[in-house]
């Protein structure tokens, strides 16, 4: 992400950080808390896009999704520990990922072996 100067912040300047690959963005989420790895997820009409560099570059991350029309994305409050991300897609329901969004499982088909152990 570009360095934000005091002048930019005062002027409320927006900087474009993504292209049109996924179409309309319907949801955004970012990894919570202090982290060296700032991950951002975008729910789009083409699925979930993932950025590991605060939005500078994006990659599609749809493994396991059964609908590309993602309307909601959220990171777990304990993301640094559990790496869980949740998404919801039209006519497909809710999904959960234990791999920071790389692979998603339907909430009804989450393998027990994938769950983190406390």
Description of the molecule:
The chain has 118 residues and is mostly beta strands. It has one domain (18-111). Helices cover 8% and strands 31% of the residues. The chain has two helices and eight strands. It has helices spanning 6-11, 79-82; strands at residues 25-30, 40-44, 47-51, 59-60, 70-75, 85-89, 93-97, 105-106. The strands form two sheets. Strands 1-2-3-4 form a four-stranded antiparallel sheet, with no helix packed on it. A four-stranded antiparallel sheet has the order 5-6-7-8, with no helix packed on it. The protein is globular, with a radius of gyration of 15 Å.
Question: How is this fold's topology laid out?
Answer:
Blueprint: H1 6-11, E1 25-30, E2 40-44, E3 47-51, E4 59-60, E5 70-75, H2 79-82, E6 85-89, E7 93-97, E8 105-106
Antiparallel strand pairs: 1-2, 2-3, 3-4, 5-6, 6-7, 7-8
Approximate shape: globular
* Overall pLDDT level: 76
Helix content: under 10%
Strand order of the largest sheet: 1-2-3-4
Number of helices: 2
N-C termini distance: 34 Å
The counted number of beta strands is 8
As a whole number of angstroms, the C-alpha radius of gyration is: 15 Å
The structural domain count equals 1
Largest sheet: 4 strands, antiparallel
Order of helices and strands: HEEEEEHEEE
Contiguous low-pLDDT stretches (5 residues minimum) are: 109-118
How much beta, percentage-wise?
25-35%
Structural class: mainly beta
């Amino acid at each position: 992400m570009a360095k934000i100067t005091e002048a930019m912040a005062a002027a409320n300047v927006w900087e474009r950080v993504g292209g049109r690959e996924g179409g309309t963005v319907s949801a955004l989420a970012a990894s919570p808390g202090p982290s060296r790895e700032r991950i951002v997820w975008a729910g789009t009409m083409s699925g979930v896009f993932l950025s590991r560099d605060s939005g500078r570059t994006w990659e599609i991350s749809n493994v396991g999704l059964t609908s590309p029309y993602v309307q909601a994305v959220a990171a777990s409050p304990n993301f640094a520990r559990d790496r869980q991300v949740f998404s919801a897609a039209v006519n497909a329901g809710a999904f959960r990922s234990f791999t920071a969004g790389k692979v998603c499982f339907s909430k009804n088909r989450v393998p027990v072996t994938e769950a983190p152990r406390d």
